[in-house]
Amino acid sequence: MVHGWPGSFYEFYKIIPLLTDPKSHGLSDEHVFEVICPSIPGYGYSEASSKKGLNSVATARIFYKLMTRLGFQKFYIQGGDWGSLICTNMAQMVPNHVKGLHLNMAFISRSFYTMTPLLGQRFGRFLGYTEKDIELLYPYKEKVFYSIMRESGYLHIQATKPDTVGCALNDSPVGLAAYILEKFSTWTKSEYRELEDGGLERKFSLDDLLVNIMIYWTTGTIVSSQRYYKENLGQGIMVHKHEGMKVFVPTGFSAFPSELLHAPEKWVKVKYPKLISYSYMERGGHFAAFEEPKLLAQDIRKFVSLAELQ
């Protein structure tokens, strides 16, 4: 299981027992997992690269080597945020070793379908979008365009000049906490931005949030974690070969309703043609494993059950 930014391996602490000891938590023990949760290099306790070029493809190569050195020749992989892209790259790189890929966020390639929402809500129904898709995508200007504009300022900074803001954050624990916690507010549910306390304790405990912040603070890795954006996005979007490549391993997708951008099944299937499981989740946002560990664990287990039949 692979995390993203500004998360860490700690996001998975609550879901790990549900996968490794499901019976003790009221879940079926049909599938019991060994769970590996590595840190992306440059995040927390994982050493940062000393040279340029550590992007998602390089990370996928490192994590594949990690799995083989741990003795796993075939395995399932799961991720959201950067973890989604890293796991996708692993599935592209070594498909014979990846038994299945489960995602709760998708980096979607440009296609006919990704442009169709611009035609309007009525055309959405005509083109086969479900009522749930339409609910999550429209009004399009508000839920997609304005949402991206509101939430992508950090991305432009980190994809162009990560060290500038990073040095300031490394110098101030309060500044670092504010920068990270804002994401755990608005990315959990966009409506939380209107709340005085950011709704932080509606899904998380302050202790859990502070553990994640302290992983960055004690290791001084906020700068190297932000450089990951420049490594992956600094040259532009859709300029890397892997971005246009499809994934041909069994794939499962959890569509959480408060994710930053909803990805309808039609969009996901363009990139992942072997999509065998697509689930509209009852609740939850960007930090799925941290917010709703039981829901995500149940969907992973459902996907694996289907993948084992392939």
From TrEMBL:
Molecular function terms, GO-annotated: cis-stilbene-oxide hydrolase activity
Subcellular location: Endoplasmic reticulum membrane; Microsome membrane
Record flagged with keyword ATP-binding: no
InterPro entries linked to this entry: AB_hydrolase_1 (IPR000073), AB_hydrolase_fold (IPR029058), Epox_hydrolase-like (IPR000639), Epoxide_hydrolase (IPR016292)
Main location: endoplasmic reticulum
One BP annotation, GO: lipid metabolic process
CC per GO annotation: endoplasmic reticulum membrane
UniProt keyword annotations, A-Z: Aromatic hydrocarbons catabolism, Detoxification, Endoplasmic reticulum, Hydrolase, Lipid metabolism, Membrane, Methylation, Microsome, Transmembrane, Transmembrane helix
Catalytic reaction annotation: 8,9-epoxy-(5Z,11Z,14Z)-eicosatrienoate + H2O = 8,9-dihydroxy-(5Z,11Z,14Z)-eicosatrienoate; cis-stilbene oxide + H2O = (1R,2R)-hydrobenzoin; 11,12-epoxy-(5Z,8Z,14Z)-eicosatrienoate + H2O = 11,12-dihydroxy-(5Z,8Z,14Z)-eicosatrienoate; 2-(5Z,8Z,11Z,14Z-eicosatetraenoyl)-glycerol + H2O = glycerol + (5Z,8Z,11Z,14Z)-eicosatetraenoate + H(+)
Record bears the keyword Transmembrane: yes
Domain (AB hydrolase-1) ranges: 1-256
Main EC class the enzyme belongs to: hydrolase
Recorded topology in the membrane: Single-pass type III membrane protein
List of catalytic residues: 81, 229, 286
Family indicated by similarity: Belongs to the peptidase S33 family.
Protein name: Epoxide hydrolase 1
Origin species: Rattus norvegicus
